[in-house]
From TrEMBL:
Protein source organism: Arthrobacter subterraneus
Pfam families to which the protein is assigned, alphabetical: GFO_IDH_MocA, GFO_IDH_MocA_C3
Swiss-Prot/TrEMBL keywords: NAD, Oxidoreductase
Record domain Gfo/Idh/MocA-like oxidoreductase N-terminal: where: 6-131
Record-given protein name: Predicted dehydrogenase
Lineage, uppermost ranks: Bacteria, Bacillati, Actinomycetota, Actinomycetes, Micrococcales
Domain of life: Bacteria
Every GFO/IDH/MocA-like oxidoreductase domain range: 141-285
Recorded GO MF terms: nucleotide binding; oxidoreductase activity
């Protein structure tokens, strides 16, 4: 166990701020098993963003290059929270410098880069993990428990959507999210989360079919200044083409059933709707990120005349919550920011050498990040082949 861990976050944008805040809260949860944390630096090429985030979240300094963070002796742990196409260079540089790295999803923007990153991670002496935040959502983790412990049992049918509306307005400014090859749009951005959640619940996807990718807003205005996250900042009257998908859909075959998955960044009225229903041999469950403190559960039990979906309010009996909130009572309310905290905590526990059976479930490996991208690449191939079915080999890792 180390004496202390120095923490840095690269990227002070929408998700970077969630990482910066999550590290601060992580040590205050559960049992005090972590070594003291030092909140050292926020790295961002935009010095104004870096400085504002460092001040807001109480980090000692800000740096304007990832190299400065790689070279710093007082930093051990780094989150990489920048545009997907930048992940490889930064992650490889940090691993070579001996840092522990938590990288945002999707692992990269191309499978080739993602595979190279996984090779670098497997060769490194430090820990490299990818943040699939929704596995930390108490309702999703609980539904998985119900599937695995046989209460719900085998999944027969999964229906999932991740609808967002950040690209709904044609006046929304051009940003890195609209650039890249086929499948690098909504499919990579939110489809990576949905595909991960689908496998988390239903088991390995064996094939995908009926792939559809659609760009419905073909050009976007250039921003007048720097754009953070989904901000609708002031724009110029110059436009650039949108290169990737606004909407994507596909079918998936799981070990025991099938699924339908749909993602969008132009779903008006749905800023952040990850929702799914799983139909299982013993009942069904429904989750909606808009109401993250509850799930719907239907079980085949009791008199059929009285049976139906019940609302299960999540609290200390459910995953992550006992000790995972300052006030861990039922119905206090929680959301996506807590999922970033549980993710940060799991990563820090692993880096600090807390045994697996005494820590939160470990974060996903880079191999799992590659696997996730292989599924998305197969969806893109299916779309390019008129919806043809694409087989996905079983993962080579446990
Ligand atoms: N897990 C989640 O729920 C979630 C949510 C949002 C985004 N993400 C992921 O997080 C990553 C970042 O997304 P975002 O929405 O926060 O992006 P963003 O556009 O809001 O922020 C990116 C930041 O990176 C900075 N930057 C650009 N180039 C840089 C460089 N070379 N070095 C250091 N900083 C640089 C920018 O100035 C900006 O502040 C993406 O991989 C995205 O998929 C994950």
């Amino acid at each position: 166990m180390r004496d202390s861990l120095g923490v840095a976050v690269i990227g002070a944008g929408m998700a970077g701020k969630a990482h910066a805040a999550a590290y601060r809260t992580a040590a205050s949860l559960y049992n005090p098993v972590l070594p003291p944390l030092r909140f050292v630096s926020i790295g961002d090429v935009n010095a104004q963003f870096g400085s504002a985030a460092a001040q807001r979240f109480g980090y000692e300094r800000h740096d304007s290059s990832w190299q400065a963070i790689a070279e710093a002796d007082d930093i051990d742990v780094v989150s990489v929270v920048i545009a997907n196409r930048l992940h490889r260079e930064v992650v490889e540089g940090l691993l070579a410098a001996g840092k522990h790295v938590l990288c945002e999803k999707p692992l990269s923007d191309t499978l080739e880069d993602a595979r190279a990153m996984a090779a670098a991670a497997n060769a490194a002496s430090t820990t490299a993990r990818i943040g699939f935040t929704f596995r930390r959502t108490p309702g999703i983790a609980y539904i998985r428990d119900l599937i695995r412990n046989g209460t719900l049992g085998k999944v027969l049918h999964f229906s999932g959507r991740y609808w967002t509306d950040y690209g709904c307005s044609p006046h929304a400014p051009m940003s890195w999210r609209y650039k890249g090859g086929p499948g690098s749009g909504a499919l990579a951005d939110v489809g990576s989360h949905l595909a991960y959640v689908a496998e988390f619940l239903c088991g390995d996807i064996q094939s995908v079919s009926g792939g559809e990718l659609s760009t419905v807003i073909n050009q976007r205005p250039l921003p007048l200044g720097a754009v953070l996250g989904h901000d609708h900042s002031a724009v110029s009257d110059s436009f650039e083409p949108v290169e990737n998908d606004d909407v994507a859909a596909f079918g998936a075959r799981f070990p025991a059933g099938i699924g339908a998955l749909e993602v969008s960044r132009v779903a008006a009225g749905h800023a952040n709707t990850l929702t799914f229903e799983v139909f299982c041999e013993n009942g069904a469950a429904v989750f909606n990120q808009r109401r993250p403190a509850e799930i719907g559960l239907f079980l085949h039990e009791g008199a059929s005349a009285n049976n139906g979906y019940r609302q299960v309010i999540l609290g200390p009996e459910h995953p992550y919550l006992a000790g995972g909130l300052a006030m861990d009572a039922p119905s206090v309310g929680f959301g996506q920011n807590e999922a970033f905290v549980y993710q940060a905590r799991a990563f820090l526990e692993e880096v600090a050498g807390v045994p697996e059976d005494a820590s939160l479930p470990r974060c996903a490996s880079f191999d799992e990040g590659v696997r996730n991208m292989e599924i998305l690449a197969a969806v893109t191939s299916s779309a390019q082949a008129g919806g043809q079915s694409m087989t996905i080999p079983a993962p080579a890792f446990a």
